[in-house]
């Protein structure tokens, strides 16, 4: 009897050990799965944002806004499904023009699957390109004229919008441009984005030139289902285009050693012009002509 009781206790101890080890294994696997979900969530490249958010760069958390916003609805999930069939590739960049006013040209190709044309009939899809500028600026009024001419759907400048500041006192700015993807329903359609840029006055330097680098833009695709009034949301996804060569702009700058001579000549020229206007006003005697009736 005592031998049977000992065997039963031995079996109970083994069962408890097995149950304990299984519980530990399950907890480890669950924690690993949760960690994987959190890691994937932190690296999210798609999100749902309300339709009232016209511009992405207007979000104070840009460019990390996609990791903070994800309030999904059925219409947004279908928009994200449409975005998956739209591919963007082959980004080529160049700077055209001369002087202090030039155009930044960005060319890229969009391709869709055979069934995407039926999807695009039921969705509004846009290409969103956001440029980060330092040392140069885009005139928001000039961009608005392009929107009025229907070159772009929307365009705006965020950040430092003071056009009169020199480069030494200015901060970076974001330029956001929206283009309609409906005309690009054909395979290998090339989209061309022309951004007019102006130079900010660089600080004085003895090297005679200042080099400005314009880095690769952020590219997004966003879609929304047509004819939705309530709970309207954009499905937004980042497009990774791979490394692209930076655009360089060589800008002439003044030599600090010549600043005294330039200031003196400018002051003398302004003084001579002002005195000429004063003397002309004093010596001028208008003659009044009368006409006999």
UniProtKB/TrEMBL annotation:
GO terms for cellular component: endoplasmic reticulum membrane. Belongs to the PIGX family. This is Phosphatidylinositol-glycan biosynthesis class X protein. GO terms for biological process: GPI anchor biosynthetic process. It comes from the Eukaryota. It is a single-pass membrane protein. The chain crosses the membrane at residues 12-34, 261-284. It is found in: Endoplasmic reticulum membrane. Coiled coil: none annotated. Pathway: Glycolipid biosynthesis; glycosylphosphatidylinositol-anchor biosynthesis. Keywords: Endoplasmic reticulum, Glycoprotein, GPI-anchor biosynthesis, Membrane, Transmembrane, Transmembrane helix.
């Amino acid at each position: 009897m005592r031998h049977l009781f000992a065997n039963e206790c031995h079996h109970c101890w083994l069962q408890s050990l097995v149950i304990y080890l299984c519980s530990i294994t399950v907890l480890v696997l669950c924690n690993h799965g949760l960690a994987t979900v959190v890691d994937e969530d932190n690296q999210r490249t798609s999100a749902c944002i309300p339709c009232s958010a016209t511009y992405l760069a207007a979000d104070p958390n840009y460019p990390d806004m996609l990791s903070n916003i994800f309030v999904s609805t059925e219409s947004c999930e279908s928009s994200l499904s449409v975005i998956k069939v739209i591919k963007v590739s082959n980004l080529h960049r160049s700077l055209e023009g001369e002087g202090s006013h030039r155009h930044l040209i960005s060319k890229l190709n969009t391709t869709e699957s055979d069934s995407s044309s039926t999807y695009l009939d039921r969705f509004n899809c846009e290409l969103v390109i956001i440029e980060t500028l330092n040392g140069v600026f885009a005139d928001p009024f000039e961009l608005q004229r392009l929107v009025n001419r229907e070159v772009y759907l929307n365009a705006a400048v965020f950040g430092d919008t003071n056009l009169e500041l020199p480069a030494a006192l200015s901060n970076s700015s974001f330029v956001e441009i929206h283009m309609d993807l409906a005309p690009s329903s054909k395979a290998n359609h090339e989209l061309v984005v022309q951004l007019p840029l102006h130079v900010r006055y660089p600080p004085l330097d003895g090297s005679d030139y200042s080099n400005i680098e314009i880095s690769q833009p952020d590219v997004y695709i966003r879609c929304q289902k047509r004819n939705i009034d309530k709970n309207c949301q954009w499905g937004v996804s980042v497009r990774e285009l791979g490394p692209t060569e930076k655009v360089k702009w060589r800008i002439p700058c003044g030599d600090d050693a010549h600043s005294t001579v330039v200031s003196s000549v400018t002051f003398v020229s302004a003084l001579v012009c002002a005195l000429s206007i004063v003397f002309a006003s004093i010596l001028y005697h208008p003659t009044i002509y009368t006409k006999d009736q």
